Fold:
Amino acid sequence: MRESSAFLHALRALGPVRLNEPLSRHATFGVGGPADVYFVASGEEHLRGGYALAHREGVPVFVFGSGSNILVGDGGIRGLTIENRTSEIDGPSPNGAGYRVRVASGVSFAALARRLAAAGYAGAEWACGIPGSLGGAVVTNAGAYDHSLAEILKSVRIADARGEVIELPAGGLQLDYRNSAFTRGKISDKIVLSLDLRVQPGDARLLTARVKALDRERKAAQPPGRNCGSVFKNPPGEHPSWWYVEQAGLRGHRIGNAQFSERHANFILNLGGATASEILSLIRLAQERATERFGVELQTEVMLVGEFT
Ligand SMILES: Cc1cc2nc3c(=O)[nH]c(=O)nc-3n(C[C@H](O)[C@H](O)[C@H](O)COP(=O)(O)OP(=O)(O)OC[C@H]3O[C@@H](n4cnc5c(N)ncnc54)[C@H](O)[C@@H]3O)c2cc1C
Structure:
């Protein structure tokens, strides 16, 4: 713990602070060591304020949303970790030919998609099974069933290291398959505060039926339990990543308490008490075999953060 008492004092003025908080409690994988300092931002002012404060004090800072696309190392994360629980939703309201909804980056994509569908707004219903926050969705241009966030994103408001707000049109984010200016390192030391999305009026009954059908499809295809969704991005070419994991003989393969799912080979399950190192060993094994046997590079969709011991 190297953070000064002045830093902790200033942070506590913004909201509750926990020390040595186990991140396994906050990531869907259920693994990960402690955050030195942990702060839950319940509003945009807290998110911006905590982020700027850390920069001002020279404390490393990590911001996350729902923890559904991170593998946190067993050594944890040094400095400040901020959980984004901002929740404001404004709209939809008429805008040009359609409707605009402004959503805080802490809002769950799935929850928003369901709410819009039930209220009779079309455009986001395909996202009803994406458990992460919209801030996380910007970073990887989250998508499903041949749709992605880029289709409905008009613009974002981001904050820089000083807490200043910048508005950026979607075109400035370089969104494509599971990539953005964030993943490419073109935008750094900045966080997403809110998104403006474009939706259209639709039939609530039909949209809700579509959500139910997608729920059934997802339930049949994806394994239950603690996981991070797809571990690898699909590589360019003929086969999806699960095919390479399977052909490498790793469907159902287990290291310690981590296992490639029998049902969907691009999922790794924490069977209970797995470590980040065990999960990482499975990832590396699949990558090595895919390269050796097929000359294919499997890139992780899940983001590795913190210290791996
Ligand atoms: C069961 C399951 C199913 C899934 N299905 C899908 C799917 O169909 N399609 C899909 O694309 N993904 C899917 N995912 C993965 C995940 O839900 C998405 O990637 C989601 O967008 C991640 O959001 P998050 O809030 O959980 O991000 P986190 O895991 O909290 O963070 C991921 C990264 O984003 C960064 N980040 C988060 N918020 C911000 C912010 N406000 N500003 C700047 N950076 C930020 C973090 O620093 C981190 O680097 C699934 C995951 C699970 C567990």
DSSP finds seven helices and 17 strands in the chain. The first strand starts at residue 17 and ends at 22.
